Structure prediction request, 594 residues.
Amino acid sequence: MSKRTQVFTQVLYPDFPLLRALFVSDIPYVALEAGPTKCADLAWRELMAKRDTPATNLSGEPQSELLRELVAHLRQNRTQLREEWVQRITETRLLTAMTKEEIFAEATSVYDSYVEALETETFEALQAYARNLSERIIPRGVETHEVVGIVLLLRDVLARSLFAKYQTDFKKLNRILDAYEPAANRIANTVAVGFVQERERVIRQQQEAIRELSTPVLQVRERLLILPIIGVIDPQRARQLTEQLLRGIRTNRAKVVVIDITGVAAMDATVANNLVQTVEASRLLGATVIVTGLSPEIAQTLVTIGVDLGKMNTVGDLQGGIEQAERLVGYKVIPATETR
Amino acid sequence: MEVPILKQGKVLIATIQAALSDADLENLRRGLVEQVVKFRSLGVIVDVTSMDVMDSFASRTLREIAHMIRLRGAETVIVGIQPEVALAMVQLGLTLEDVATALDLEEGLAYLNEKFKTTN
Amino acid sequence: MSDVEIRVPINSDQDIVGARQKGRTLAAELGFSAADATLIATAISELARNIVSYARRGEIQLQRIQNTVRQGIVVIASDQGPGIRDVAQALQDGFSTSGSLGLGLPGVRRLMDDFEIASIPGQGTTVTVRKWRP
Prediction:
């Protein structure tokens, strides 16, 4: 085995163009392992700057022939390469939001789609698959850099297997890479772009949902506001509601606010804290808050975060809350003996 | 900058501006107590509409003012806390819990009048 | 990238107002909402007051900050005062919610997104807080 071959088998994260240049020259060199993230970074930039270059074919062997050979190799070694890829993914700590089984299941689909795209040289199916995959993994909290990272890792794993296979025949390796590279780059591009587009769509959808659920603060009686809260509240929405309510108190000169949480299934500690702060802030604006529809679960959450429910004005249902509110707005001074 | 104190019947009204120094607040405290005693006032309204920030020092001072005025037999109401300021205050943990609050001057006066009626 | 940097010396209580007003202005320039700008100004006020109360003099530094996805503001309150002997205790809640005891640091932490403190008794204290624009 020549010295050059030995050096090649030690290259871990090849930078393709550089490597190719070194291949055909006689310049000795040392290959540095850049690490997957940095490599992904560099490769991504390379991807973005690249146009679809027509594959140059040094010996005149038909492109399709090479591709077929390539695809056959990838299909034959499917199990092994796929495992190596999954191994890489776990090593570099990508897709931490998914379990090993899930990663393996998705990896299988991605691998097969990848090879199919290489074979057919069409990318529509891949695009559709990428969108579908993104739909599933975005709610799991998978981020763009992870998706780009794993696709590039697959590209590396496959490239390395090509190196290993054709290491005795540099010219052949060169031609195989000529066929492989543009397609591999296009695939990485397609998957990443598909993911990002899906992500943007989800974000737009969420914003729409927030706007829809954005409950108007209702003024039903003079100086009395009702804020019915329905659905899921995350901390961001909770803050939004608080700001809306306080502004509403000022605009409507409300003396009493009824916050109805009958439609809220559960509340985490952050949102529960926010509710308490809303009550306190409302008081600073001179308004009394009555909370209605407090479920036993939410009452428990409040107690857990240290709220003295005795101090919070709560009434069982919305109707009762409105009645009490009207009494308060009527501003009758209630003698000490009469409670509620 | 001195804080102007107006007298309206049995109520004193102090309107605070935004950039109040510690010395100004101190003067305000002294001024209010003096005038409550002098006019036998029953109520004090401190209007903080122009305060764009209420930090722990300001909050503490207002509570001290209310406390001292209560010792002189009068009730204090803080009015005009802005929504954003209220939000910042409760996150900081400042609730002004032992001081009465109202939306604005009108509400503050209404609150005091109600209180005077019941205590008479 | 931090192209905007404002330093406000804190020597007396009168400097507190200046510091928080500059903070509010910078926050508005960076596109923070009125509510967030108030939170930032309030945090600056608290930190500046600590400097005045415990170290007599120090500095508030305001900077625009940026990472790959968003931008924000950083406030660095530093002094060469007596320092905090027991930082853990100072950061404990309940110790400051009354507003009359302690340094109000847990409150400041609640107002901002990031909070860091370094204090050496006898040498001084530096509190760094950040808020990111959503």
Notes: The CA atoms of residues 7 and 24 of chain C lie 14 Å apart. The first helix of chain C runs from residue 13 to 29. Chain C touches chain A through two residues (CB under 8 Å). The helical segments of chain C are 13-29, 34-55, 87-90, 105-111.
